[in-house]
User: What shape does this take?
Amino acid sequence: MGLKIVVVIQARMSSTRFPGKVLQEVLGKPLLLHQYERISQSKLEPLIVVATSTDESDEPIVELCKLHDIHCFRGDLNNLLDRHYKAGLAYEADAIVKIPSDCPLISPKAIDKVLAKYIELSPEIDYVSNLHPASYPDGNDVEIISMKAMQNVWQNASKDFELEHTTPYIWENPELFRIENVIWESELDFSKSHRFTIDYPEDLIFIKAIYENLYPNKKYFELEDILDLLQEKPEIMQLNKDYAGEYWYKNHLSELKTIKNY
Assistant: This one.
């Protein structure tokens, strides 16, 4: 494809809401490894790097990467913008794909759709995501940023939430960047009703139920398979329904200009 695209999976053990969630096991395998294998199904075959911190608490993530021959980068514990930017420099990326490690059900097709849009528009594009506005079920978060834009953000972003979440400086300043958004081809919006991410123990129970029902017969099940399962067994949908539609935005609404109707 010409461009060197590097997927960065940001991961740490010290999650405030669910410490150690990335190494919780489902069917005998850590969630982080499940997610890595799903991202590896991208037909565009980007380089995949797990970016964790230099903190001692993240040694288990580094050991997992060594065991499975996964590229691993270590950076700042709390400044994710710095960690993403320096991972991009270390692997000589033309563009960075930001995928958080709390998306163990992420759709490889969703990844390819966002990356394909970026490649189609490159070099006349700085940022493509499927989040602004979101339409996919929560937990299919894909953002791709040119390294030139990343450098701009790294040099100018200063608010705490801009450093913690890496990309708000871009989508909060659309006059400074060339931005595109990808919507789910179903034309549905399940972003607030369907929760496929993990922040709470209830989310882990939901994710385990999905894997236990689908993985034995189809290792790389897709989004459509999950939705069919939820139609067949609606009780699974109830397992983490109390957290549906919960995003980090809720703590910063007074500071964000572009987030509406949360």
About this structure: The beta strands are 5-10, 25-26, 29-30, 47-53, 71-75, 95-100, 127-129, 143-146, 179-181. The chain has a mean pLDDT of 95. The longest strand covers residues 47-53.
